Amino acid sequence: MTATLNETAPALTEFTLQYSGVTQKKNNTSYPFTAVIHSIDDLKKVAAFDNIGAQHSDGKNNRGKLIKGYRSVKTYKQANCLPVEVDNEQKDPLKPDIPPEEWVTPADVAAAFPGVPFYVVYSRHHMKEKNGKPARPRFHVYFIMNTVTDVDRFAALKLKALEHFPQFDSDAMDRAHFFYGVENPQVEYYPGNIPVDTFLVNLDKLPDVIPVGTRNNTLSKYAAKILKRNGDTDKAFELFQQAADRCEQPLEESELKTIWNSAQGFFHKEIESSPDYIPPDAYELADFTSGGGKKKKPVTSDDVKKVLAEMNITVRLNLISGMVEVNGLPKAYSKENAANTLPVLLMDYFTKHNMKCSRTTLDDCLVLIEDENRFNPVEEMLKSTTWDGHDYLKDLAEILGIADNERETLYLNKWCHQTISLALNDDVEPYGADGVLTIQGDQGAGKTLFFATIAVKSDWFAEGVSIDLGKKDTVIQSTGCWIAELGELDSTLKKEQSALKAFLTSRTDTYRLPYAHAQTRRPRRTSFCATVNPKEFLNDETGSRRFWVIHPSPLDVERVKGLSAEWVKQMWAQVYETLYKKDVQGFRLTKEELQTLQLENEQYSKPLAGEIEITDNLDFDAPLDKWHWVKVSALLNHAGIRGVSSMQAGRVLAKLAAQDKRIQVKNVHNVKQYLLPPLSAYEEFPRTGADVEPLLGPL
Questions:
Q1: Looking at residue 293, what is its pLDDT?
Q2: Residues 598 and 612 in one domain
């Protein structure tokens, strides 16, 4: 039921505005002057200045400064005017501009609000090109209403007006909205005697009896309202049939069908497609308490899901990168910054639709949603690729120039196996890596290109990462991909040797995910590789067993460049089918393979401090009966080695003992002695007390 125009009652013309002494000042918040409008001429004078439709008291801004007529929600006093705006501009960047035949005019507003008095002031951009779009009607509307002293009711009435007439500008719905002043304003008055608040409150009420002569019009409007409230559902149609039963004389079924079909068409074409449309689920959360409607309730994750679905936005957690992927944002926003943009868009949506949601609550909901939608892109690739049976690993070894080297081919296959296993790591009982496939060779030989190519996608590969375990960002960067290449390996290995080794083979990574408050421990899904130019780059006296070194001879760069994405996917599918499925952790080296690795890695190891001096002074070809038990200090003294400490010499001897089983170690009164060959040219160690002892008996 709508309020009825009283043709004998005088038209309403009076309302109050506050205005400033400036024009087109966006950041101005002072509106110290008040004017009571009785006529078009009165409004012309005020509309030349920036003005607001509600009255505000003086107040202090955030810096404590007193502002006269302070435009703020907290200083709202009252309003007897409901200001809205029409700009005839499509807000959704994904949709085409509004065609001229659908542009709204003040006459359209009058038809939608019959009997409601309002003034119109054409805005400064009326019939002018704006933002590259053609000229079109743009105007401000001042509806006259009863005095409203509650700011929430004032806001609810603006939303109610927007709901009734979606062509109003949804960006002009804030409670303290102001209008720019217009030079030589053009003003019009549309008479009526029904205050707009009365019209809106009675808008949805049906009369107990719908008299003849108003049946079609009443049912058409009611059908549009219930479709907007409930969507095109069985419930909406049931309500429509109940309304039809109130007709003083029943309408024919054919007429009712025509009315309903027409309302459905309007709903789907005009209402549902509008960016300002509030869907039924969101409407249930809207705050219309001051208007006698629904009470606001907190937003839940289900509500956020519905809003995301309505906006065609998906939020997923990428298990490989550990990052959130947001898809479906309007083209105006970049994909790179989508994770930061999304919460702002959602908060704007909730504010516009009067939905109660704090940023903390929204972040918690997004964490839940992204985790529910988690995905593993490498796993998706493997499951969507069927291996064709060709031996791609053999081709890969040929491309690297190691097909005839059984040991290096083993390292390649084991590392590929490890890379698949880590991508599919177990969430409950995660496991770590075993080795870092390291390609040693000249600069510009295509080493990095090789790894980047077999990583399938550029964002699955990190080139030249530098890991500083004291800086969390470098750790996140190095583990935020499937395959990570260690940069400047020879210099990286100079620092934090033990900690770095442990990190490379760690089972898990711990850091905070986007939108999350607490840290998350997740399985390691990154497989490390390395490229290095110098041959001697390992400086770990224990043998650097984590580095599986191959030396291409040479790497076929042209074949690498010619590898298609499909070829690489087939290669990984072979690894998945023939290695991973047979033994998930079958990539680990056996005890014998580790021993061979440590021996082979000697050629890539840098000499320890003092190693050259010590080995040059010892005659390892001397017969065993010439060997002696020697203290470290005696060795340095009798060999005349300077600049090498006892600790450094001890490390050298420990390394040599690991390589040569003839060298033995014993403790005498907590002092280590080493069984060593004589000095060069069969020169025996001088026998000085307990520092040197001859070998007693056979080894």
A1: 44
A2: no
Q: What angle do CA 458, 460, 463 make, to 5 degrees?
A: 70
Q: Which amino acid is residue 56, in one-letter code?
A: H
Beta strands 178-179; 51-52: pairing state: antiparallel
Question: pTM for this structure?
Answer: 0.54
Tokens representing 37 are: 């409008």
* Distance of alpha carbon 650 from alpha carbon 367, whole angstroms: 54
Is there a domain that residue 242 lies in? yes
The CATH number covering residue 679 comes to 1.10.10
What is the C-alpha to C-alpha distance for residues 160 and 538, in angstroms, rounded to an integer?
A: 73
* 3 located within any domain: no
Of 675, 668, 667, the C-alpha closest to 626 is 675
What does the angle CA 268 – CA 274 – CA 280 come to, to the nearest 5 degrees? 70
For 17, other C-beta atoms within 10 Å of its C-beta total 26
CA-nearest of 254, 85, 235 to 174 is: 85
The 8 Å CB, 24+ separation contacts for 561-570 are 561/449, 561/453, 563/399, 563/453, 563/454, 565/456, 567/392, 568/453, 568/454, 568/456, 569/381, 569/385, 569/456, 570/385, 570/387, 570/388, 570/390, 570/392
In sequence order, which residues have a C-beta less than 8 Å from that of residue 212 and are 6 or more positions away?
247, 248, 249
Helix axes 392-400, 406-423, angle to 10 degrees: 120
Does residue 687 carry a pLDDT above 70?
no
pLDDT of the residue at 442: 77
Which is higher by pLDDT, 340 or 225? 340
One domain for residues 97 and 231: no
Cα–Cα separations (whole angstroms), residue 209 to 142, 472, 588, 655: 33, 72, 84, 102
Residue 301 structure tokens: 């994750």
Instruction: Give the residue from 201, 230, 257 where a domain finishes.
Output: 201
- Contact indicator for 430, 509 with CB cutoff of 8 Å: no
Based on the domain organization, do 260 and 304 belong to the same domain? no
Over residues 258-310, the pLDDT tens digits come to 999 998 988 888 777 766 566 666 555 454 333 344 455 678 888 899 888 88
- Calculate mean pLDDT across residues 482-487: 91
Decide: 525 and 482 in contact? Cβ < 8 Å. Answer: yes
- Looking at residue 80, the DSSP 8-state letter turns out to be E
CATH number, residue 482: 3.40.50
**Tokens standing for residue 416:** 């590929």
Taking the C-alpha atoms of residue 463 and residue 163, their distance in angstroms, rounded to an integer, is: 53
Residues 517 and 641 in one domain: no
Q: Tell me the DSSP string of 521-542.
A: EEE---EEEEEESSS--B--TT
Indicate whether 427 belongs to any domain.
yes
Report the domain count for the chain. Answer: 5
pLDDT at 685: 58
Same domain, 197 and 234: no
Q: How far apart are CA 473 and CA 471, in angstroms?
A: 6
pLDDT-wise least confident of 58-62, 105-109, 253-257, 623-627: 623-627
426 vs 526: CA distance, rounded Å: 13
Q: Which two tokens stand for residue 442?
A: 């000249």
Same domain, yes or no: 326 and 441: no
Q: Is the same domain home to 415 and 530?
A: yes
Task: Name which of 514, 465, 461, 507 is nearest 323 in CA terms.
Answer: 514
Specify the DSSP class assigned to residue 248: S
- The answer as to whether 509 is a domain residue is yes
Of 603, 631, 650, which residue is a domain's last?
603
Residue 75: partners with Cβ closer than 8 Å, 6 or more residues away: 56, 57, 58, 59
Cis upstream peptide for 694 (omega within 30°): no
Q: Which domain holds residue 371?
A: 298-375
135 in the same domain as 39: yes
